[in-house]
Write a structure and sequence with these properties.
Layout (H helix, E strand, L loop, with lengths): L1 H17 L1 H32 L24 H11 L8 E5 L4 H12 L3 E6 L7 H13 L3 E4 L5 H10 L4 E4 L13 H21 L5 E7 L23 H20 L3 E6 L2 E2 L8 H11 L2 E6 L7 E2 L2 E2 H14 L16 E6 L5 E2 H12 L4 E6 L14 H7 L7 H15 L9
Parallel strand pairs: 1-2, 1-4, 2-3, 4-5, 5-6, 6-11, 7-10, 8-13
Antiparallel strand pairs: 9-12
Helix pairs in contact: 1-2, 4-5, 4-10, 6-7, 7-8, 9-11, 11-13
The structure holds the ligand O=C(O)[C@H]1O[C@H](OP(=O)(O)OP(=O)(O)OC[C@H]2O[C@@H](n3ccc(=O)[nH]c3=O)[C@H](O)[C@@H]2O)[C@H](O)[C@@H](O)[C@H]1O.
EC number: 5.1.3.6
Enzyme class: isomerase
GO molecular function, one term: UDP-glucuronate 4-epimerase activity
């Protein structure tokens, strides 16, 4: 023992210091510890990078990857906010899930629903198709009127299932979409992702919900495509889309029919005609014309062949909101339950337009008068990028069945838009996106 211990104390110690084996082993141990330590730090940094909160998470640069963003949702506090926002506060009120609530039409519809005592819960992925700060400002507006917007994507079926578990929505107002006619040539997959895959994901959740909600959703005047019979009636052909955007909206109408037929979902599509107004979309011509005229930048005005005019049936947001609410109010219940159809359900399509097309050149003249600035104009040939020459709604069906009656002409509507624009961007202090 003594001998052994002395061996350890003397020889062993000596051996440990001098033996290359032990020396290397010790270095190896310390390298391993260092490697483990730095690996841990590296993994922690990766974890922080991918899982930090959505508000501080910069959006991916590639627009087609926008949907890969992760969102934080869930937990008791979150569920409490969801329930409170969706709580019905008036007799005969309904409880509505509004997708695309931070969007232009979504914000206006959510506010109107909330104001009349309905339960309203918003859902939006806050993508960066246009300036997300405008979406955040709309969110703040809705927050003040008691509407909570859940941050998430309509393609997230787990989130949708959860929302229907927490709230028995009576209605879904589906306004989330990839909008814009010309952008479809730049980023086609975003249209398929939101307007087709997203719609299917939402309808899947609705069909499995108990009770099944009635769904009202945004289609588009663009489905009329190359149809030359005017004004456009719901009975006219819609099988000649001129843009991928239009094609995805038309596909949406067919998909909606399938879910109505198989699962008994009550479905109403609203074909919106070039909606404009305060809190509007910066990618639309009336909005960026205003910005560019004020900045002294040249605007491009499209003209058809042989100097023909290009016209739109511009429709003011308040008229659209009335149409949306009327569609909700007249929607019958879905007939299925537990994913099974019990009987035929309502299936409707309506034009929501203004019935008076205005040439784009007149839109510019109105803006010039309102802004008191002469626009620098460049007249160019209508590019072959999805635009059509004319839209003009026949609204007699919506008039008859929804009591829809637009009452704002372009001059009065643009006056309200310009007033909002100048106030919001405070004379150019905030940069218009
Ligand atoms: O009803 C719809 O379903 C669609 O309406 C809207 O599409 P559009 O009617 O094309 O609106 P918008 O881009 O504002 O162009 C307005 C006019 O300005 C012309 N235009 C456009 C750009 C330009 O630089 N110059 C120009 O003359 C252009 O040729 C057009 O005549 C929505 O964006 C779309 O998401 C969808 O909802």
């Amino acid at each position: 023992m003594l001998k052994h211990s002395s061996h350890l104390e003397n020889t062993g110690k000596f051996k440990m210091e001098k033996s290359p084996y032990f020396h290397n082993k010790s270095r190896w141990h310390s390298s391993l510890m260092k490697l483990t330590f730095w690996s841990f730090i590296f993994l922690a940094l990766i974890f922080i990078f991918f899982y930090r909160s959505p508000s501080s998470n910069p959006l991916p640069q590639d627009p087609s990857r926008r949907s890969l963003r992760t969102y934080n949702w869930g937990g008791p506090a979150w569920e409490k906010r969801v329930r409170s926002s969706a709580r019905i506060r008036s007799r005969d009120g309904v409880s509505v899930l509004v997708t695309g609530a931070a969007g232009f039409v979504g914000t206006h519809v959510s506010t109107a629903l909330k104001m009349r005592g309905n339960g309203v819960l918003g859902l939006d992925n806050f993508n960066d198709y246009y300036d997300p700060s405008l979406k955040r400002a709309r969110q703040a507006l809705l927050d003040r009127s008691g509407v909570f917007i859940v941050e998430g994507d309509i393609n997230d079926s787990t989130l949708l299932r959860k929302l229907f578990e927490v709230v028995a929505f009576t209605h879904v107002m589906h306004l989330a979409a990839q909008a814009g006619v010309r952008y479809a040539m730049e980023n086609p997959s975003s249209y398929v992702h939101s307007n087709i895959a997203g719609l299917v994901s939402l309808l899947e959740a609705c069909k499995s919900a108990n009770p099944q909600p009635a769904i009202v959703w945004a289609s588009s005047s663009s489905v009329y495509g190359l149809n030359s019979k005017v004004p456009f009636s719901e009975k006219d052909r819609t099988d000649q889309p001129a843009s991928l955007y239009a094609a995805t909206k038309k596909a949406g109408e067919e998909i909606a029919h399938t879910y109505n037929h198989i699962y008994g979902l009550s479905l109403t599509a609203l074909r919106f005609f070039t909606v404009y107004g305060p809190w509007g979309r910066p990618d639309m011509a009336y909005f960026f014309f205003t910005r560019d005229i004020l900045k002294g930048k040249t605007i491009s005005i499209f003209e058809a062949a042989n100097h023909g005019t290009v016209s739109r049936d511009f429709t003011y947001i308040d008229d659209i909101v009335k149409g949306c609410l009327a569609a909700l109010d007249t929607a019958e219940k879905s007939t299925g339950s537990g994913g099974k159809k019990k009987g035929p359900a309502q299936f409707r399509i309506y034009n929501l337009g203004n019935t008076s097309p205005v040439p784009v050149s007149d839109l510019v003249s109105i803006l010039e008068r309102l802004l008191k600035v002469n626009a620098k104009k460049n007249i160019i040939k209508l590019p072959q990028n999805g635009d059509v020459r004319l839209t003009h709604a026949n609204i007699s069906l919506a008039q008859r069945e929804l009591g829809y009656k637009p009452s704002t002409d372009l001059q009065s509507g643009l006056k309200k838009f310009v007033k909002w624009y100048l106030g919001y961007y405070s004379g150019g202090k905030k940069a218009a996106g």
